[in-house]
Each structure stands twice: as C-alpha cells, then as structure tokens.
Amino acid sequence: MKPPVFKRDIVLAVHPSATGMGWTAFEGPLSVYDWGVFTAKIDKNAKCLAKLDKLLRRFEPQALILEVFDTRSLKRACRVRRLCREMIELAALRGAHVELYGRDEIAAGFSHVGAATRRDIAAAVTSVVEGFEHRLPPPRRAWMSEDPRMALFNAAALALTHYRLQSDLALRDKRR
Length: 176
Hints:
CATH topology: Nucleotidyltransferase, domain 5
Number of domains: 1
Largest sheet: 5 strands, mixed
Shape: globular
Order of helices and strands: EEEHEHEHHH
Number of strands: 5
CATH class: Alpha Beta
C-alpha cells in the first residue's frame, strides 16, 4: 500500500525583468517555501519559460501570480510582455490558475507601513519574509540600472498582495 501523498497549496509568483526573472513559492501568507533569481544572457524568453516549466512541474502550484503587464501606462519591453503572455499559456497548460495584480494593488497592500516606492516595498517584504534581509540590494542611484535581485522582492510582493486580496474576498463573502 502506498503512503498518502500530501499536496501543498503553493502559490508561485514570478516577476520577469530585463535580465531574467525572480520567483517565490509560498505555502501561505507568511510561509515562503522557496525562492530564486534566474538570469539569462541570450535567448531570455526561451530560458525563462524553460525555468518556469521546471518550477511548475516541481511545485504544482494552485496559482501563478504575475504583475499586470499589458496596459499602455506600463513601460514594459515588448519582449517581457510577450514572455508574460507565454507564461500564462504555460501555466494554463500545467493546470495552474493565473492571477494578475496591478502596481496600484501592490502599493495599496504596503501603504499601511508607508511603503510608496518599489524599494520601500522591498524593504517591507524583508520584515515579513524571513531570510530576505541580506538579499536586499542597496538603494539605486539615478544612473544605475535596477539590480536583478529586485525581481525577487517584486515577486514576493506579488504573492503577499495575492494573499491579502484573497483574504479580503473571503471576509467579504463571510459578511454576506
């Protein structure tokens, strides 16, 4: 007789960047399971999709969380927008539900701690996610490009936003 298989309810948040992507896998609102930053120098979309496919197969998440990427107000590169669309297709193929959250929703989730910028939000994430403190890059200067590690914090902020909004929905449903 086989031992029972316990399936975790994992949420995988991914943030594509100019150099690759950052990702976090959460088991619950305050329980990070695994994380990483993936960089690719050539053929970035294909390599990021292959990495995402490995993550989807490894974790079998119930949801893939991405930031809204296809609005006129966002300055996302065409390559990154195409990558996000391909990520959504891959997640659907692997049976994961996809959720998209906008920057305004992310900012609202961290406004209670006074976090206004992505850097502020990343610092707030370090207070919630144990083990991220030493990964926080120094503040960026105007002439510097964004540190690839920021994709990790953006992914974590996405996951935390997902849990906050899901709990808000659950509270509203209970009140009805």
